[in-house]
Design brief:
By secondary structure, this protein is α/β, with parallel strands linked by helices. The protein is built from 12 helices and 14 strands. A hairpin with a 2-residue loop joins strand 13 and strand 14. Helix 10 packs antiparallel against helix 11. It is globular. It starts with a strand and ends in a 5-residue tail after the last helix.
Length: 331
Amino acid sequence: MGTRFDVVAVGNAIIDILHPVPDEFLVENGVAKGAMTLIDEARADMLTEKFAGAVVAAGGSAANTVTGIASFGGRAGYIGKVADDQLGRDFTTAFRAAGVAFETPPRPAPPGTARSLIAVTPDGQRSMNTYLGASTLLTSADIDPDFVQSGAVLFLEGYLFDRDEAKAAFVRAAEHAAAADRQVALTLSDVFCVERHRASFRHLVAGHIDILFANEHEILNLFETDDLDQAIEAARGVCPIVAVTRSEKGSRIAAHGEIIDVAPFPVAKVVDSTGAGDLYAAGFLYGLARGRSMAACGALGSLAAAEVIAHLGPRPETSLKALAEQAGLGA
């Protein structure tokens, strides 16, 4: 079977609302710095009022990744759940305008379309307060086998793992992908997400995942160790390709019996780290779909991450295809 897409992603369909704030704002409003905290609708409404004039974008971790793939000139599809409300319509319009195929039907509200209120402090750290709303109501019934199998790689977002129905949808999607000899990738998404679902993640990685994305804290937590080399060894024992992002240290890739350290691309100033890991995955997966070496995949990931942390918001503002060509990474 041929492929229609380089990557098909499954994730939380969320509207991102980003606002620069001083550190005092976090203390005054009980916001955990640098983490993703799940909130209810009442707290979401309260914080929305305090985020007047914020940057608003169709978001969600895997959604950011496939938008990045489209910016590279790749072909991407997405499965995620929105409500039939204004935010859901805004998400769908913006997402399709970015060049991503999005065909999952909306569901009646309530609950409404999900939103993530992201407080960005002067050091570029993002603190996410997320109301999951309709996004968590994705079920196995929303997993279209033909759509999943039309991608060379299936990409799963760890944030979606908070409901048993979503876990079942992940496994169903992975099984459909494997049946068509497609690769399956997973991002761990957040250290608190790993803490909540460590056993389930380890089972998923060992049984269904070909490509694992994590930052340093997430992979250490997943394998319950303080030693990065030990965590990577444990991961590569059950997963063929492991890519670990390390902020200013770049990334480390374990694949095909070798370890590759990838340098970060220089950034004049880190404005907002929102989406850095998502865009790293975009560059890596785009390179993989194009048959590039592991080192080149990592370099494309670093390039995309550098672009997104240099401005406010989780989506590229400059064509990643053009930046790759300028850096000698085009193809």
